[in-house]
Fold:
Amino acid sequence: MRALLTSVVVAALTSLAWAESQVRVTTDRAIVEQGKTFRITVEASGEDVGEPVIPTVPGLSIAAEPIYAGSNRTLSYISGKLTVSITKTRGYNAVAQELGEIEIPAIGVSVGGELVYGQPVKITVVRAGASRAQPSPTRSDKSLSVDDALFLTVDTSNNDVYQGEAIDATFTLWALFGSTVRQYESVFPSSTGFYAVPREPEKPDKEELVRNNLRYQAIRWRQTLYPTQTGVLELGPWKWQGLLVAPHAMEAIPVELATDPVRIAVAPLPQPPQNFSGAVGKFEVSVTRERDDALQGVPTNMTVSISGRGNPDAIPAPKFPEVDWAYIGDPQKISGPVDPADRAHAELEFEYQVTPIQAGSHVLPSIDFCYFDPELEEYVTANSEPLPWKVLPSAEADRQILVDESSRDTRSVAMAQRDISPVVTDPGPITRRGSRVVFVTMASILPALGYGAFAAFVQRKRRFASDGRYARAYHALSRAQKRLATIDTNADPVDGLYKAITGFVADSYNVPEAGLTSADAERLLRERSADPELAGGFTKILRACERARYGTGTLSADEVHALVHGALASMERLDALRARGDAS
Amino acid sequence: MTFAVAATLLFHGATLFNGTFDRATDAYDAGNYEVAVNLYEQLVADGVVHADVFYNLGNAYYRLDALGPAIANYERALHLRPGFDAARHNLDICLQRTKRALAAPLPPAWEQGLLFWHVNLTPVFSFRMAVLSWLLFWGILSLRLWRPLPYLRRAAGVAFFVAVFFGLSSWTKEHPHLIAVAATESLPVHYAKGPEEKARFELFEGDRVSIDRRESGWARVTTADGEKGWAEESGLALVGPPYLRPALGTTDTAGGTS
Structure:
């Protein structure tokens, strides 16, 4: 019965909220001047929207016909059904005739055959010109005192709170529009018994406001207070001193101001449940993870987000239920950005490193976050959705799964069953490991050098085989030297010397050796040798040999040795010249 | 003569090191694990790089309940001899005793892609294969110069690529990405180096991480999933090379270096 009643009330409230959202009434300004025109706009949405019913408002004259009319058609699918929604907008001119606050009552519009009302709107009517110029307040001015020109107020959002509940405190310095304050000092109220954010009010905001039909520049400092003690706590007084220069005044007036203390009754929290986190306010919890599929043994990140209204610094990391398939590390707190306009709004994230130990499909149970809701005046537990995890086995999987699933402490059971393998007793010869740099360098370079030498050798060998002229010239000296070395054992040394020289010349210039005379040799040497003196030397030795062979004269052994010595010297010289390319 | 002197010195050295090894093993068998650790560490400090020495050292650290240094030494032994079953078995047991059996960091992506085949090769095998294939390459070139038989050019090309790949494998195994093992029960990893910096996450004893920078007693560590941060080197046992003695794990410093 109680559940049914609750459902009916909720349904009624929901329909009311929906109805409210269908008609919206706004004015183009909140402060209007007496006798001046301003505009009231009525916006209504629905399937069949009629015209607004403009009420009669005392002190206010609203035109019967709209000065502006517009409509907008929207097509949308809701639950597979096409819905046509029309939004009608009507603008009405209005003139305020009386000073003070005037409330425009709810304006009704027929939507879908039913009369739906918008919300009431309040306007403040001031004297014509009051918002542009103010009278100059002086101490002698009886109508407007210094107290009217400059004063302080302290406003708190709630003076009857629970311990830890957020209280928004606003410290406002009201300065008559056009006046100036200089050289001021402000001593904000002591926040003893409160956890204050920020510690001291900072960075005020400024706004033009109307108070008591006068236009002011309001300088506001804001602070959020969380009572840490119970009982009646006092906030204040707020003290201010400085110089005031009134509008159109030349002289600065020293002013000292102070507010009355604000008393706040702080009630203790009721007996908390065991899982109470310590947070006071209204919160929501959600859990997200870095990736859907985790790998066994590889850590992945999971984030628990807590958002809502309450002291962000008093929100602890939620406790995770223990799971046997993963290791969940300690959380790391990441605070969201602080909204200076609402410091009690908390956006916190706690990042956990989860290392899955067992492969398979698992579920991370929901997380409970128990807080005290001051509005409901009871403890509320927010829950996250249970999170399914698919853990893929890793290459090291066989190392992890050791015992059957019935065991809770798998690792300790495994230790009782297995021991390490014994030490090695015969490692073979143990040597110090030297640097491999020299070996690597040698092993890299030497094969290439060897290949180069081998390539040169092969090339030369091939030239000997293919180039007979080169081969004869290359071996000419060695052949001649061999011939001359055995000249002493020769029966005719002079003939041997002659043949050795002509053979050398023939080899050197690749001509037939047989029948080569001294004249032929001289001609060859003179034609191809760059050194005429060398050719002359060879010719002289050959002629001496010819004279000894064909003439009457004979050569003694010493003379033959001298000729051999001279021939050897000339041959070596010619060979050197040829090798250098001086003789071809 | 020179060869004889070198052979004598080598034999003497081998005898000396084998003697230290035997004394360490005897100490281990007698339950004097600290002495065994010091003797094995002395071998390592003397430049001995041997899978059996690291394996026995890992066992000695394990018996001293120093999981971090034990895991580091088993990793060293497995790096030198990937088919060392006893070392892998003991490493598994150590990992089971760690708090969360964190996966080992993987080598760089290029190594995983290019050298996937060399995981189970020993550094010595890779090195020998690199040298042999290099010599083979030049040998084939020389043969082709001497007598240009068919397919020698292709054979030389194949030998060259084999030499390059085994050379890369050998270099990678000689200069592996540095791995370290957390050697303290809990090791905070900070956003920046310095104990005053905010801690980012925590390593537990036996967690393996890779190190990409080392500066003034701090190491920038990366976990298997890419989480990075700075940890104090004194709380880590480096797998190496260099094969440094961990700061924790033993109390007797006789004969040891760090």
In short: Chain A is about 25% helix and 40% strand.
